[in-house]
Design goal:
Elements lengths: L4 E5 L9 E5 L2 E8 L2 E6 L13 E3 L2 E3 L6 E3 L5 E3 L11 E4 L2 E4 L7
The structure holds FE2/S2 (inorganic) cluster (FES).
FE2/S2 (inorganic) cluster binds next to loops.
């Protein structure tokens, strides 16, 4: 668990609900989809919009500002105007808590 940062209690991260946490000062989006934890950058790569204020529809998170779509598992852009993917982070769940790596996963 070295380096992982505890960010939430398991019960607070609900299926289909977008939450925002800070990991070493970085805004991070966290949710569950099909029971899987999904952890990505919370800031849209198009401009400076908070994706936790967006909408989650199936496997897509929609930006609240100009409606870019991103895959919630991979961070890939599924709908423009964004062109760059979101960073994705590794998460671990243990003892009723969720911890997140402060370093994005390599794509
Ligand atoms: S800021 Fe997200 S689509 Fe423009």
């Amino acid at each position: 668990m070295t380096g992982f940062v505890s960010v939430a209690r398991s019960e607070d991260i609900k299926e289909g609900a977008l939450s925002r946490v800070d990991v070493n000062g970085r805004p991070i989006l966290i949710t569950r989809v099909y029971g899987r934890l999904c952890v990505l950058s919370a800031i849209c790569t198009h401009e400076d919009a908070d994706l936790s204020k967006g909408e989650l529809e199936d496997e897509t998170v929609w930006c609240p500002l100009h409606a870019s779509g991103f895959n919630i598992f991979t961070g890939a852009v599924t709908s423009p105007p964004a062109e760059e993917p979101l960073e994705v982070y590794e998460a671990r769940e243990y003892d009723g808590k969720i911890a997140v790596s402060p370093i994005p996963r390599k794509s």
